[in-house]
Amino acid sequence: MVWGSELKGWRLVALLCLTQVLGMLSNATFPALIPVFQPLWSLSNTEAGW
Q1: 29 in Cβ contact with 19 (< 8 Å)
Q2: What sign has the CA pseudo-torsion 35, 37, 43, 48?
Q3: Residue 44 has what DSSP assignment?
């Protein structure tokens, strides 16, 4: 394998890992912010959990 193409492969893997992390970030962020959104959006506990 040519050294330059191997480097490009690592960049691609790093980019895919980064996009996966950024894509899953909302799964952790939104539940953490529900207590902030409840009074702003007038949500009950049931509505916030839905």
Answers
A1: no
A2: negative
A3: -
